[in-house]
Amino acid sequence: MRPNLILHVVAKFLIPLIILFALYVQFHGDFGPGGGFQAGVIFSAAFILYSLVFGLDTAEKIIPAHWLRVLAALGVVIYAGVGVLSLLLGGNYLDYTLLAGDQIAGQHLGILLVELGVGITVAAAMLILFFAFAGRGRE
Amino acid sequence: MTDFIVGHYNYWIVIILMMVGLYTVISRGNLIKKVIGLNIFQVSVFFLYISLGTVKEGAAPIIAEGIEVYSNPLPHVLILTAIVVGVATTALALALVVRIKESYGTIEEDEIHNLDHSL
Amino acid sequence: MEDHISLLLVVVPLIAAPVVAVLPRGRSAWAVAFIVAAACAVLAGMQLWAVLTEGAISYELGGWAPPWGIEYRIDAVNAFVALIVAAIAAITLPYALLSVEREIPEEKIPLFYSAMLLCLTGLLGITQTGDIFNVFVFLEISSLASYALISLGRDRQAFTAAYQYLIMGTIGATFYLIGVGLIYSQTGSLNMQDLATLLPGVLHLKTVETGFAFIMIGIALKLALFPLHLWLPNAYTYAPSVVTVFLAATATKVAVYVMLRILGTVFPQGFALTTPADELFIVAGIAGIVIASVYAIYQQNVKRLLAYSSVAQVGYMALGIGFASAAGVTAALVHLFNHALMKGALFMAVGAIIYRIGACRMDQIHGLGRAMPWTFGAIVIGGLSLVGVPGTAGFISKWYLVVAALEQEAWISVAVILMGSLLAVVYVGKLIEALYFKPVTDTGTAVSEAPLLLLVPTWGLVFANVYFGLNTDLTVGVAEKAAAILGGMKP
Questions:
Q1: Is residue A65 situated within a structural domain?
Q2: CB atoms within 10 A of CB C310
Q3: Are C268 and C200 in contact (CB under 8 A)?
Q4: Cα separation of C169 and C174, whole Å?
Q5: Is C72 strand, coil or helix?
Q6: Chain-chain contact of A133 with B84 (C-beta, under 8 angstroms)
Q7: What is the tally of helices (H) and strands (E) in chain C?
Q8: Contact residues, chain A to chain B, C-beta under 8 Å
Q9: How many domains does chain A have?
Q10: Domain-embedded: residue A139
């Protein structure tokens, strides 16, 4: 791929901002619009931009496909695990109130953890999709 | 009469999109165009739900001082789920189309049909 | 623990699915999947027992009270269907080990079992939930998993079959979603119990009627009700053997359950009679039984023959629903259970043939019955059950269906049910003729009996066919209780 200076500089400048914005959307989700789905997609957009500019092989060195599969699975397990944890604490499935000392803190903690799981899975799944389609035909 | 048309404009948009999408799925032989039609069809349903959730003069459903009327957040939540399902369906459909193209060399339905029945 | 059974049925396979996906190659993925399926079957059995002895279970997810939160609500109807799904999964998985190793590329096996577990999660979720939007979500989980599973078949037609199913299945699910949206717009609720109290007040609205129609068409697509069955023959024919067994025995059954639930619980009993729905069920059922059976006779591929027969069997269930009486609903539920047993056994036996010779066209299986006597025996008994010979499970369902039809004095339906059995004699007979009475095609290699691991699950289902043909306490007993809850649709 022919390196393009402008693209490289702009991408290097934008990617940290995109990731920062993704994290904002992720963790601000319980006070305003946001949450794991949106944050996961924005987060993966940063990596997709990176692989568009620097090439697929470089991108795959940063996140190998095998790790993406593990991450996608991990997110689901975090989500379901929070539910199981609240079961073990004696509540119903996904009953966040018991996760912390008082009800409000519990709800906050619960939704943050669950959305973290969602975010990880969505980001990993989007990247798996991108790599699967973009990498097709190379083999 | 104008009230009927203008007052229900969201439903008209939904119906038009729905018919465009469904017609594309049924009438096109190209597998990618079918997927696009399916997407338009699904999006029309998203519109239907979202427009149902609107409350006149309602603010975004985040509790704040001095606001009394909020829009209904539930349809948004439902549609967020439906959008994710739609994305997954589209991805799977496109993946299948890629595999069909690789093994048949075409994504036109009638050509695939001929290839399967000329054996 | 006991309070959480209905939840664990969904969550255990849900957690296991991503874990299985990242397991290394080898048999560990299968082992986990099998343990999970067996655990689900035990849980489903416990759940049915709890429901029968103590009455309906309600489980509030996240501790949010219904109708605001999602509620799992289990009564005899869904406990019964959940047990069918989980039990079939537990019987299919031992069978899967060898069959999958033969038919699926090794690197895809963990993903295969992951998709199986997701499909199980979806199907069990549909049976457990008491929220009509949640039904849509689980419906799509199971459907997406099954599209992926079907596309893993060995022929390239598997891709087109999966694509075709994906398009039609998504249209069906979206129709269902439209219907749910229209009903939500008039009631503001998604909880089934809540809707049951809210809907009688708004039934006169055209919006609700339209929503009802959309939901019915959407589920009829998933159900493969004639003439919306076009996806089914290809999907069943080209899917890997295990997938065909699992889907044929569970997926359409769960759709029948959703249909019954919408007609019997969500909408007030008797509402369907004010719409053309019940006549349409009878017409579609009759047309399905006759036309699909005739199609089955002319098929050259054994799996496709059985797939068309499945469309015909869905017709019987539609007839039961269309009669709209308690007897009709009982018959539909009994047939739902028995058809899972017979189609499971038959597709397993055909899978054993595919395991040995790698194909299942009529002209390739000539004389195999003598080389594979146990597989052949399973096909004979499964086939007799399909026909409805006394002493098999199939007879029980036909009997209750005819009784329900006679009660309504629906003579045409009675004639069609009997004719369907005669047509089944023809296509089952054709299969047996090819397997036993045709001279062996000389392929140069001797074919031996299928391995024990394939035969034991097959014969497990075959024995179930005979057992439930003689002892009907579980099937008819529970189905009658369930029909009492759904009340029949006639007031």
A1: yes
A2: 27
A3: yes
A4: 9
A5: strand
A6: no
A7: 21, 2
A8: 31-33, 37, 129, 132-133, 136
A9: 1
A10: no
CB contact under 8 A, A133 and B94: yes
What pLDDT tens digit does each residue of chain C (491 aa) get? Answer: 667 888 888 999 999 999 988 888 778 888 999 999 999 999 999 998 888 888 888 888 877 887 888 888 888 888 889 999 999 999 999 988 888 888 888 888 889 999 999 999 999 999 999 899 999 999 999 999 999 999 998 888 899 999 999 999 999 999 999 999 999 988 888 888 888 888 888 888 888 999 999 999 999 999 888 888 888 998 998 999 899 999 998 998 999 999 988 988 888 877 877 778 788 888 999 999 999 999 999 988 889 999 999 999 999 999 888 887 888 888 888 999 999 999 999 999 888 888 888 778 887 778 777 888 888 888 889 999 988 888 888 888 888 899 888 888 888 888 888 888 999 999 898 888 888 887 776 666 677 777 888 888 889 888 888 888 888 878 888 888 888 887 655 54
Report yes or no on A72 lying in a domain. Answer: yes
User: Can you read off the two tokens belonging to residue C159?
Assistant: 């891709």
Which residues does chain B have within 8 Å of residue C206's beta carbon, measured at their own beta carbons?
none
How far apart CA B75 and CA C196 sit, in angstroms, is: 20
CATH number, span B2-55+69-117: 1.10.287.3510
Token digits for C255? 């759709």
Domain assignment of residue A125, yes or no: yes
pTM of the predicted model as reported, rounded to 2 decimal places: 0.93
d(CA C354, CA C363): 13
Whether the Cβ atoms of residue C393 and residue C341 lie closer than 8 Å to each other:
yes
Q: How far is B115 from chain C (nearest CA, A)?
A: 10
Among chain C residues, CA nearest to A107: C62
For residue C131, the cross-strand partners are C191
- Which secondary structure element, helix H or strand E, spans residue C58, and what is its range? strand C57-60
**Which chain C residues contact residue A87 at CB under 8 A?**
4, 7
